[in-house]
């Protein structure tokens, strides 16, 4: 993440302001949001750039090297026909600071409020679209619900870079060919950070859609197989259209006067952006390769030194971490031995206490189980007695008396007479009163025909159930 010093340096490099106090005030007014501060600054100065020197009839110039920031050293690596860029504007005075600072604060506040409202509406719209798609009413319902709304926040600079890369692919991408620079879908600052982390230079292309030389340069040079392969291998490529906000800002910062415009930049040691080379006007792939090869060779020592320095930092950091780890390991070993002794003592005490607790719990459980078993047995005895009493005396044989034979799973048989008007429930009460079963869930079943006298037939009389004048039933455990 870019820190405060980096943001201040980048803001000065992009806007061309030299006064660090003023830049700090502007960034603070925008909560140190670099993109919002630059956008607000550019918006307040749009009138000064309406007559930007984009000449569609200018001829190709020799390559020049110009620093992005006025504090960088200006170096001309080309011949005698190099075109010097326009002098930077004088630093703003105190009156300008006093006038523009409230405007910047108000603009930044409005930008934050409008951004929050816009994000809320966008999120609500995404949720509504997802909900409609989920119930089959959305525009994507015909796709079988494979795609769903994804609430992903993309910065305006990244969105602009991705849109430019997609438009470039549509306009100049050849069918089945990948011969083109791989423009990163990130803002300029993120692309610069990427190049620094990968120890490469940043190749910048500013696209002027209305310039007559743009199509031939893009198709013949940028999409050349040899040139694009060289750029993709040795550089991080970033492109932007001057019609876009960031592309326009970079054209001002790099002082682009003719198109097509290419540049090679890198982060400077003083946390500023160093412009190593700029190419204005149409060039052939061979000319561009010569220029980029020369810049690459001249910058190789710096890149190699940066890579070696980073590797040395990594090695030193790893060595310190290993030393710290060894020291911590030794300290932890001593502490572990002491801790082990304490834990062993505590373990023995816990085991003794646990054994005592388990012994008491087992005794209590045995007592509780014995008490519950006795209570259950007593309840069963009472239940059998109550059901035996409810049956009453066994009736004598007669025309209204039913003879019932009950066979148990053990092979035991019991026989009893019941009044033909007695309910099926009386048979279950009779079986329960005998105490021949250890289970409570069973059914009385007749064989021929097979009839299960379950809960739905308990209220039927023996005669209604077809068991009169005699019946043979067996107990089926459920």
TrEMBL record:
<dbReference type="InterPro" id="IPR009060">
    <property type="entry name" value="UBA-like_sf"/>
</dbReference>
<feature type="compositionally biased region" description="Low complexity">
    <location>
        <begin position="52"/>
        <end position="76"/>
    </location>
</feature>
<dbReference type="GO" id="GO:0036503">
    <property type="term" value="P:ERAD pathway"/>
</dbReference>
<dbReference type="GO" id="GO:0005783">
    <property type="term" value="C:endoplasmic reticulum"/>
</dbReference>
<dbReference type="Pfam" id="PF21021">
    <property type="entry name" value="FAF1"/>
</dbReference>
<dbReference type="InterPro" id="IPR029071">
    <property type="entry name" value="Ubiquitin-like_domsf"/>
</dbReference>
<keyword id="KW-0175">Coiled coil</keyword>
<keyword id="KW-0833">Ubl conjugation pathway</keyword>
<dbReference type="Pfam" id="PF00789">
    <property type="entry name" value="UBX"/>
</dbReference>
<dbReference type="InterPro" id="IPR006577">
    <property type="entry name" value="UAS"/>
</dbReference>
<dbReference type="InterPro" id="IPR050730">
    <property type="entry name" value="UBX_domain-protein"/>
</dbReference>
<dbReference type="Pfam" id="PF14555">
    <property type="entry name" value="UBA_4"/>
</dbReference>
<dbReference type="InterPro" id="IPR001012">
    <property type="entry name" value="UBX_dom"/>
</dbReference>
<protein>
    <recommendedName>
        <fullName>UBX domain-containing protein</fullName>
    </recommendedName>
</protein>
<dbReference type="InterPro" id="IPR036249">
    <property type="entry name" value="Thioredoxin-like_sf"/>
</dbReference>
<keyword id="KW-0256">Endoplasmic reticulum</keyword>
<feature type="region of interest" description="Disordered">
    <location>
        <begin position="335"/>
        <end position="373"/>
    </location>
</feature>
<dbReference type="GO" id="GO:0043130">
    <property type="term" value="F:ubiquitin binding"/>
</dbReference>
<dbReference type="InterPro" id="IPR049483">
    <property type="entry name" value="FAF1_2-like_UAS"/>
</dbReference>
<feature type="region of interest" description="Disordered">
    <location>
        <begin position="52"/>
        <end position="88"/>
    </location>
</feature>
<feature type="domain" description="UBX">
    <location>
        <begin position="397"/>
        <end position="475"/>
    </location>
</feature>
